[in-house]
Amino acid sequence: LGLQDSMIDIESLKGFMYWCWLKGFTFDYYLDTAMSCGEVLDAIAAVGLGSITWQSGKLGVVWASDDQPIQGVVNMATMKAKSFSVSYQTIDTADSLEYQYFDRDREYSWQTLRVSDPTLETALNPARISGMGVTMQAHAAVLARFHLAQSIYQRKDITFDTDLEHLTYKRMALLAVTHDVTQWGYGGRVVEVADNSGVLT
């Protein structure tokens, strides 16, 4: 993009490159059509379960990892009154996915990888997507399962407002949420801490 280093979150890029190296994720693509720099960056990030962000004020990347720590706790004490809601998707979502990719091990031909909901015997509502820059079957399988899991397990949206003082997390952060309306438990704010011979109460 021609940005100076001061405008790039280099540490996030290093972390993302290491994550992709650990998982064996690569981006291999012959660019033969007009695309913006942003579109190319988004495509590269997507093969590592990530996306481009400016949330730090610099160009960086965030991604979903399987060992991601909880980065914030949200409860009734940190939510604005009457802002909490849960909306469920009642429409049929995909129960299987056909993922197309350009397989380097099969003479660089388009291949289709199919994954299905493991709880169903017969898939009736397939979705189809293609992976830009994905050239290995194992990589395609991870991305296909990731996309199908979103369709199967993310069927509700949890929405709330919070004051800026409680906004300690960023996009793609893993949160722990507790609320009594949905019987998820209870929560509050730390009011006082007592130290009795090293035992914190």
Tell me what the structure shows.
Helix content is 20%, strand content 25%. With 201 residues, it is of the alpha/beta class. The strands form 5 sheets. It has a 3-stranded mixed sheet with strand order 6-5-7, with helices on one face. Strands 1-2 form a two-stranded antiparallel sheet. Strands 3-9 form a two-stranded parallel sheet. Strand 1 (50-53) and strand 2 (60-63) form a beta hairpin. The longest helix has 17 residues, at 137-153. The model has no long low-confidence stretch (mean pLDDT 89).
What global shape is seen? globular
How large, in whole angstroms, is the Cα Rg?
21 Å
Series of secondary-structure elements, N-terminal to C-terminal: HHEEEEEEEHEEEE
| Biggest pleated-sheet summary | 3 strands, mixed
- Beta-strand segment tally: 11
Low-confidence regions: none
What is the structural class? alpha/beta
Report the average pLDDT across residues. 89
User: What strand line-up does the widest sheet have?
Assistant: 6-5-7
How many H/I helices?
3
Strand content: 15-25%
Distance between the first and last residues' Cα = 52 Å
Helix fraction, binned, reads 10-25%
